[in-house]
């Protein structure tokens, strides 16, 4: 598994790892220590090996790729100095002792854009006090929420960053023409064959110079259901009242006009039931799939699943925004899905049918 994880970095960059013979500076992968951890970059003066801890619960390829990333110089993606332009940290949802995990670092992005899908990005519930109930990281763009920490391999932007860190294309005969690689593309690592290096193209681009874009072009795969809602109407999951592959995570960003609030009547709500487990972290939680509903704050809400919300339940946003985010996968999909009626009411309107959704939490 370690060799496999190393291969992921070797295949996308100019880095090559060799087994130690008599070297004094080297990486030592250890399974006898607690947790998953690594120092960032090469630490000078360590002659007994630099540890990469692959402790209990860390024996997954994506985790090992992540820890190797630290060892070769990567900070966490959400520690970038420009992170506040992409994410919001819900400080109230984590212990004060964990605040330092979200410090912004001094590392350079090397001109590479922020990446929610980076192998180095924390998941949305990292260090939360309420797993499967509260997020600690929220995307500024609601439709990006389910992308956070979703990377299971080195992303395009991870590869681009590392190739810049280690000047992997420096030997390319056409290195001065890297600007020919369009739309964020970059020259591939030099292979020592004297030939020009081709462009490595971002997702959803093609052509010799990455000049051909899929329409509409977007670096990320946009949620295939949901969208911005600004008019009265019905919203529902694809295929309702059945749920069929491919599993779609959805996001509805309901935005009321000035002077109005968003009101949602849940006509049907049916998802994978809450988990039954002896582990208190998972027991009675929305482990398999979850629907986050935000009525008070754009970046923070509560998570529901199963039959948590009875038909006829009506909820109204505190301000102009009402957000519904479904986070699911094909193995988790159960139930009929969601169907709801969206209307907009005067901001001063009150209705006895309104219910506080958190009252349905066990």
UniProtKB/TrEMBL annotation:
Its EC number is 3.4.24.-. Residues 1-169 form the Peptidase M12A domain. Gene3D superfamilies: Collagenase (Catalytic Domain), Spermadhesin, CUB domain. One of its GO terms (biological process) is proteolysis. Disulfide bonds join 36-58. One of its GO terms (molecular function) is zinc ion binding. CDD domains: CUB, ZnMc_astacin_like. Its cofactor is Zn(2+). Zn(2+) binds at residues 66, 70, 76. Monomer. Zinc metalloprotease. Provoques deadhesion of endothelial cells from cell cultures, and also degradation of fibronectin, fibrinogen and gelatin in vitro. Its role in the venom is not fully understood but it might act as a spreading factor that facilitates diffusion of other venom toxins. Alternatively, it might be involved in the proteolytic processing of other venom toxins or it might play a role in extra-oral digestion of prey. This is Metalloendopeptidase. It comes from Oedothorax gibbosus.
């Amino acid at each position: 598994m370690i060799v496999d994880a190393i291969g992921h970095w070797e295949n996308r960059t100019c880095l090559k790892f060799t087994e130690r013979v008599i070297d004094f500076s080297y990486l030592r992968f250890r399974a006898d220590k607690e947790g998953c951890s690594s120092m960032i970059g090469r630490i000078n003066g360590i002659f007994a090996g630099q540890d990469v801890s692959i402790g209990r619960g860390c024996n997954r390829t994506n985790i090992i790729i992540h820890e190797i990333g630290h060892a070769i110089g990567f900070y966490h993606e959400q520690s970038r100095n420009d992170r506040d332009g992409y994410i919001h940290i819900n400080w109230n949802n984590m212990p004060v002792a964990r605040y330092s995990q979200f410090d912004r670092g001094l590392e350079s992005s090397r001109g590479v854009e922020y990446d929610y899908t980076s192998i180095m990005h924390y998941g949305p519930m990292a260090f939360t006090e309420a797993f499967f109930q509260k997020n600690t990281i929220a995307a500024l763009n609601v439709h990006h929420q389910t992308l956070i920490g979703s990377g299971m391999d080195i992303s395009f932007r991870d590869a681009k960053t590392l190739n810049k860190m280690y000047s992997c294309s420096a030997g390319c005969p056409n290195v001065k023409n890297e600007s020919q690689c369009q739309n964020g593309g970059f020259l591939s690592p030099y292979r020592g064959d004297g030939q020009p290096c081709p462009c490595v193209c971002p997702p959803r681009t093609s052509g010799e110079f990455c000049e051909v874009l899929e329409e509409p072009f977007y670096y990320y795969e946009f949620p295939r259901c949901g969208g911005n809602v600004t008019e009265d109407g019905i919203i529902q999951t694809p295929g309702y009242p059945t749920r069929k592959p491919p599993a779609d995570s959805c996001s509805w960003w309901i935005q009321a006009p000035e002077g109005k609030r968003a009101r949602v009547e849940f006509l049907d709500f049916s998802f994978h039931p809450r988990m039954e487990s002896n582990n208190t972290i998972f027991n009675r939680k929305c482990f398999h799939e979850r629907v986050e509903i935000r009525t008070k704050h754009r970046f923070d809400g509560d998570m529901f699943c199963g039959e948590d919300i009875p038909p006829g339940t009506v909820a109204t946003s505190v301000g102009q925004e009402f957000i519904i985010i479904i986070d699911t996968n094909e193995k988790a999909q159960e139930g009929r899905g969601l169907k709801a009626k969206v209307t907009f009411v005067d901001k001063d309107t009150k209705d006895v049918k309104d219910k506080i959704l958190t009252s349905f939490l066990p």
